[in-house]
Write a structure and sequence with these properties.
Helices cover 66% and strands 0% of the residues. With 243 residues, the chain is mainly alpha-helical. The chain has one domain. The protein has eleven helices and no strands.
Length: 243
């Protein structure tokens, strides 16, 4: 079965002589069970409430704007020459962030290029994994089908671990090839990564999963906050029809 090859390929990443630790093994078993199940669970359990999605998008835009404004004022006062060079580089990122949030709010599905253009913003301040605030982590936990009712330190640790395991599975799946998955495995793989695939055609699910893997396999460990946010960014406006 294609799924078993994914799990074996993932295990090979640790080396044939050293099996994965018990925690990762349990996570892989959970993922395997999820892909082996029948139809995805009820969409009511999986779709993040619209208020959560809107607040998350607004938070990303607002947080970025506030921090950038403070940093710009600091550089302008203390390092005026460096500030000129800095603004030339950073204006591109700010424009991309604003454009992406605007697209999302208009109901447009962003492309992988739109998302990858923001990788710098998600590797450190203001949206790196270690800088996420409690409100944002709770919204992301709901999107990942994880309970949000935990202290912030536990939410952060669990989101990190969950995203890291998915990232590692993505690398193994990319090596295997989406074409090796059955229709049900494709739909379940999309569902695990945030897309409510219940009523989306198989071919569209394969297209979406291909986009996800291209993003995931392009990211470094320090940029996994962007992969976590892609659970919302890449799926919220995706439909069963063409763009």
């Amino acid at each position: 079965m294609a799924l078993s090859r994914v799990c074996w390929a993932r295990a090979a990443l640790w080396g044939s002589a050293v099996p994965p630790g018990p925690y990762v093994a349990r996570k892989l078993q959970f993922v395997r069970s999820g892909l082996a199940w029948g139809a995805p669970r009820s969409s009511k359990l999986h779709v993040t409430p619209k208020t959560d999605v809107k607040s998350l998008i607004s938070y990303v835009a607002t947080k970025t704007k506030v921090i950038h404004e403070k940093y710009h004022r600091f550089l302008g006062r203390h390092f005026p020459r460096f500030y000129v060079l800095y603004t030339i580089f950073m204006k591109g990122l700010q424009w991309h962030m604003t454009e992406l949030c605007s697209k999302m709010q208009r109901g447009t599905h962003p492309s992988k290029h739109d998302i990858l253009a923001l990788r710098e913003c998600f590797s450190d301040h203001p949206l790196g994994m270690n800088q996420l605030q409690a409100l944002q982590m709770r919204a992301l936990s709901r999107a990942m089908l994880l309970t949000p009712y935990l202290p912030s330190v536990l939410l952060r640790h669990r989101l990190k671990t969950h995203t890291t395991v998915i990232h590692q599975l993505d690398q193994a799946l990319a090596k295997l090839g989406i074409g090796q998955l059955t229709a049900q495995e494709v739909k379940s793989a999309c569902y695990l990564r945030g897309l409510n695939s219940t009523h989306i055609a198989e071919e569209r699910c394969r297209t979406w999963l291909g986009e996800w893997l291209q993003i995931s396999c392009s990211l470094k460990d320090a940029e996994l906050s962007l992969l976590l946010h892609s659970v919302v960014l890449l799926s919220i406006n995706y439909t069963g029809t063409g763009r």
